[in-house]
Automatic annotation (TrEMBL):
<keyword id="KW-0812">Transmembrane</keyword>
<keyword id="KW-0050">Antiport</keyword>
<keyword id="KW-0813">Transport</keyword>
<dbReference type="GO" id="GO:0015297">
    <property type="term" value="F:antiporter activity"/>
</dbReference>
<feature type="transmembrane region" description="Helical">
    <location>
        <begin position="90"/>
        <end position="111"/>
    </location>
</feature>
<feature type="transmembrane region" description="Helical">
    <location>
        <begin position="131"/>
        <end position="149"/>
    </location>
</feature>
<feature type="transmembrane region" description="Helical">
    <location>
        <begin position="279"/>
        <end position="301"/>
    </location>
</feature>
<dbReference type="InterPro" id="IPR048279">
    <property type="entry name" value="MdtK-like"/>
</dbReference>
<feature type="transmembrane region" description="Helical">
    <location>
        <begin position="388"/>
        <end position="406"/>
    </location>
</feature>
<dbReference type="GO" id="GO:0005886">
    <property type="term" value="C:plasma membrane"/>
</dbReference>
<dbReference type="GO" id="GO:0042910">
    <property type="term" value="F:xenobiotic transmembrane transporter activity"/>
</dbReference>
<keyword id="KW-0472">Membrane</keyword>
<feature type="transmembrane region" description="Helical">
    <location>
        <begin position="53"/>
        <end position="78"/>
    </location>
</feature>
<feature type="transmembrane region" description="Helical">
    <location>
        <begin position="230"/>
        <end position="259"/>
    </location>
</feature>
<keyword id="KW-0406">Ion transport</keyword>
<feature type="transmembrane region" description="Helical">
    <location>
        <begin position="12"/>
        <end position="33"/>
    </location>
</feature>
<dbReference type="InterPro" id="IPR050222">
    <property type="entry name" value="MATE_MdtK"/>
</dbReference>
Amino acid sequence: MHKMESMDIRHLVVSMSVPIALSMLMSALYNIIDSMFVAGYSQQALLSVSLCYPIQTLMIAIACGIGVGFNTVLARYLGEQKPEMASQSVLNGMLLALISWLLFLAFGFLGSRWFLGLFTQETGVIAQGDAYLKICCGFSFAIFFQITFERIMQATGRPMYNLAIQGTGALINIILDPVFIFTFHLGVAGAAIATVIGQVTAMGLGIWITRRKVPEIHMDIRKFRWDSTLMLRILQIGIPAMVMQAVMSFMSVFMNWILMPFSAMAVSVFSVYIKLQQFVFMIVMGFTNALIPIVSFNFGARRKDRIFPAVRFSLMMATAIMLAGTILFQLIPGPLLAMFNANQDMYAIGIPCLRIISWSFVFAGVSMILCSAFQALGHPGMSLGITLLRELVLLIPMTAILAYLYGLDAGWSAFVITEVICAILSILEWSRVKKQVDLQLA
């Protein structure tokens, strides 16, 4: 019997979540360290990387969306004892990853300067950002395939290998960042080079582990079979998940437009906040990523007695983690900002920013866990709707109105109002979905 349907549910959730959370923490850590080194190089360099951040987020969102799609399909086929279809879901997912890389390759060389010009006319910022995007987009095949192999480890119940893949890439990036930025005097371009070297290494490790350590998956390109029905299933699940993560990219773009009239420092502060916030949110995302294959597998195996306890326990853990994050941001916002070579302007804007927005964390955790449950149970549209409300539909206009009428501090409070509303909606939707699953698996 597979451990997805036999192991104690709390032990299963923790055993799968912790390695994923650690790997995502490592990812958040190297994003933070990346920005710390860039900020140490110059504030102009930090601004250029901050403006590039939405494109990096979009790349990861598309990679994760494809991963969630075939991860869910893969886990369900494994639960239904259909190994051939499980392998085909991986191969079709890899084709989608390849197509995505080609699109970003074209954008990196044709659209990067245009994109940066939307926010600033400073030639130094545009030149540094252009170099950064060309390198990251040109080698983005690595991040697409790295995430593909990470999702294979999650779907097959091997989270420690997931940790090894992401942790290796992150560690290499952390080591190489100061070398390329300062020793070789490459600045922002050096940060991009260190990033892609780490991603290429992680991708290579993912290929090796999948071939040697995952017997359920036969990754033989010669046996690839285009399956339009399978591809459609992957996209039906993956696109809402993709959009859910991509809205962070669009949210960053809109926030930059809202904040730039106040000051360039406000843009940098918001970018720093996002990096620090990730350090808390990535732990919860470890639980959301583990919850999807657990719920999906047991849904395929018709084990509702394991589905609901898994969701309940994940909610408890997410609430505790987010509460700890709120306390941290309330108590030491100054030292957190100091890691990014903060000056008085950054402290003046950043300390209220961190303290106000962090009150939204607990409510965000509830929405994140329940949205993952919706995806795993075949209701991705619900996840998409709630995420759009959280990141765009409610947040952006509310931030703009409050900020322009009452100042930046009022604008930050829009995050809290939005998350409270979306948490309530998520709980109401979960009550309805739970009744449907009860009837379906009766």
